[in-house]
UniProtKB/TrEMBL annotation, chain A:
Pfam families: BPD_transp_2 (PF02653). It is a multi-pass membrane protein. Signal peptide: none annotated. GO terms for cellular component: plasma membrane. The chain crosses the membrane at residues 20-47, 59-78, 98-117, 145-162, 191-211, 223-253, 259-280. This is Branched-chain amino acid ABC transporter permease. InterPro entries: ABC_transp_permease, BCAA_transport_permease. PANTHER family: AMINO ACID ABC TRANSPORTER PERMEASE PROTEIN, BRANCHED-CHAIN AMINO ACID TRANSPORT SYSTEM PERMEASE PROTEIN LIVH. One of its GO terms (molecular function) is transmembrane transporter activity. Belongs to the binding-protein-dependent transport system permease family. LivHM subfamily. It comes from the Bacteria. It is found in: Cell membrane. Keywords: Amino-acid transport, Cell membrane, Membrane, Transmembrane, Transmembrane helix, Transport.
Automatic annotation (TrEMBL), chain B:
The keyword Transport applies. InterPro entries: AAA+_ATPase, ABC_transporter-like_ATP-bd, ABC_transporter-like_CS, BCAA_Transport_ATP-bd_LivF, P-loop_NTPase. It comes from Teichococcus aestuarii. Belongs to the ABC transporter superfamily. GO terms for molecular function: ATP binding; ATP hydrolysis activity; branched-chain amino acid transmembrane transporter activity. GO terms for biological process: L-amino acid transport. Keywords: Amino-acid transport, ATP-binding, Nucleotide-binding, Transport. It holds the Pfam family ABC_tran. This is Branched-chain amino acid ABC transporter ATP-binding protein.
């Protein structure tokens, strides 16, 4: 059997990976919960964000942590524009149109990246990824520890935004009662775009946190989004708390699965959870009853 | 205050409103009455900018609002409390009220919240409760309270008595009188003819997208046309 220290380390490592997963899932679940669309472009947008982090470092010399704020703002604007001027107007009020538009967007983005950067796998390089912190008997990767802290902070900020600000209240109002919101002077098109922008900003932050320990290629986002879908189903579609806790759970399961079954089978546990949740609790841990 | 000239609107290929002329003056309660499906709710949606105008003009305080967006109309002070309340069921009573001042009346939010709670003590008791768990009457109070938070200069009430018990219907019409007593003009859109004509100064009877009858409430009540227009007899 494994010693307690190794298992503890695996759990903590899992929590740290899970925090990054949670950020990706937060964006996905927020957009689903408010706009009622499954954003198929989420993975491609994450890939774009990861390339942007790479570009900031290599062209401008701005490190991934310093890039968090500018990239989050940039991707907020990008997301706002995408929803306001592309996805929203092309949907004509039909959900299946939105589905196809986001799918088309993902194909365009992925292939644009492929054309520009080829399918090579790149990374930030440098020593950052090997930096470790000693915590009792555990050796923890410093960038992942930072990533975990920032992800929790972003989740807390998002929760505060939704619970305490007028914009957050408007987001929740539009999610459930669009007509009532309009009559209160809320413009749903604006709020939808804000929500989509926040979802993209979450991706930008996630990309900044991932890059020190992860590689990037034009398809890398899809791996994360597949996991993020599992998290969203596990936590409950549209639930912010669910995305956060679901992300952490999935991270730990993956990490423990990797330890016990071998690295290549680590994700087995995630999809086992996915199937079990669908069978026994289809609304997710924190989802509202249909 | 509110003036409508030759208003036409519809949904898809169907013209629902076929040339309406009407007015609401300052401080007045005006009733728009009619059976189900004659276009009352469409009229309200057109006034609040949710359904587009096809022809004609809407003037609010002398300003054209027939091409304005819903949020701009709210900002101008034309507040619509919709049929079926359309409150935010997943949010607390307090949050619902606060969102009433999202676009208008924000600087005086705390004071207006106190006023709404003074008018509806029941809402104060239920302040932290999710709005979706309120009774029908309480939800109607909340919808009106949310409208009051926007400091309306003209209030449109769409079927405020719908689905309420007879006792609550009495209370609702008493409330409408009270709101109007402070000088607030109200456009009351109702199926409840008898009680609406009691509180209103003037009334319009809507039939198949046109006003079949209009005049002072007393004149409309005594007009034999009312029965024919309303009951189709």
């Amino acid at each position: 059997m494994y010693s307690l220290a190794i298992i503890a380390e695996a759990v903590v490592n899992g929590l740290m990976t899970g925090a990054a997963y949670a950020l990706v899932a937060l964006g996905l679940t927020l957009v689903y919960g408010v706009l009622h669309i499954v954003n198929f472009a989420h993975g491609a947008l994450l890939t774009c964000a990861m390339f942007a982090v790479l570009g900031m470092e290599q062209l401008l010399g701005i490190g991934p942590y310093a890039a968090i704020l500018p990239l989050a703002l940039l991707f907020y604007g990008l997301g706002y524009g995408l929803q306001r001027f592309v996805i929203g107007p092309s949907s004509h009020g039909e959900d299946r149109n939105t589905l196809l538009v986001t799918l088309g967007l993902s194909i365009i983005l992925e292939n644009a990246l492929l054309a520009a950067f080829r399918s090579d796998t790149r990374s930030l390089g440098g020593e950052m990824g090997f930096d470790v912190v000693e915590l009792g008997p555990m050796l923890l990767s410093r960038p992942r520890l930072v990533g975990c802290a920032v992800a929790l902070l972003v989740a807390a900020l998002l929760w505060l935004l939704l619970a305490r600000t007028d914009t957050g209240r408007a987001i929740r109002a539009v999610a459930k009662e669009r007509f009532g919101a309009q009559l209160s002077g809320i413009d749903p098109r604006h709020i939808f775009a804000v929500t989509f922008g926040i979802g993209c900003a979450c991706l930008a932050v996630a990309a900044c946190l991932l890059l020190p320990t992860f590689y990037v290629n034009p398809r890398v986002g899809n791996a994360f989004v597949l996991v993020a879908f599992t998290i969203v189903v596990l936590g409950g579609m549209g639930s912010v708390t669910g995305a956060l806790l679901g992300g952490l759970i999935v991270g730990v399961v993956e990490s423990l699965g990797g330890l016990l079954l071998g690295e290549s089978l680590g994700q087995l546990g995630i999809f086992l959870i996915f199937i079990l949740v669908l069978l026994f609790r289809p609304t997710g841990l924190f989802g509202a009853r249909a | 205050m509110l003036e409508i000239r030759g208003l036409r609107a519809g949904c898809g290929g169907v013209e629902v409103l076929r040339g309406l002329d009407m007015a609401v003056s300052a401080g007045e309660i005006v009733a728009v009455l009619g059976a189900n499906g004659v276009g009352k709710t469409t009229l309200n949606k057109v006034l609040s900018g949710v359904v587009p105008v096809r022809a004609g003009e809407i003037l609010f305080d002398g300003q054209r609002i027939d091409r304005a967006a819903p949020d701009a109309i709210v900002a101008a002070g034309l507040i619509h409390v919709p049929e079926g309340r359309k409150i935010f069921p997943n949010m607390s009573v307090r949050e619902n009220l606060e969102l009433g001042s999202y676009r208008r009346g924000k600087p005086r939010r705390a004071r207006n919240l106190e006023r709404v709670f003074a008018t509806f003590p029941r809402l104060r008791e239920r302040m932290a409760q999710a709005a979706g768990t309120l009774s029908g009457g309480e939800q109607q109070m909340l919808a009106i309270g949310r409208g009051m938070m926007a400091e309306p200069r003209l209030l449109i009430l769409d079927e405020p008595s719908l689905g309420l018990s007879p006792l609550l219907v009495e209370e609702m019409f008493a409330l409408i009188r009270r709101l109007n007593a402070d000088g607030l003009p109200i456009l009351l859109v109702e199926q409840n003819v008898v009680q609406s004509l009691e509180v209103a100064a003037r009334a319009y009877i809507l039939e198949n997208g046109q006003f079949a009858l209009s005049g002072t409430a007393d004149a409309v009540r005594d007009n034999p046309e009312l029965r024919r227009a309303y009951l189709g007899m």
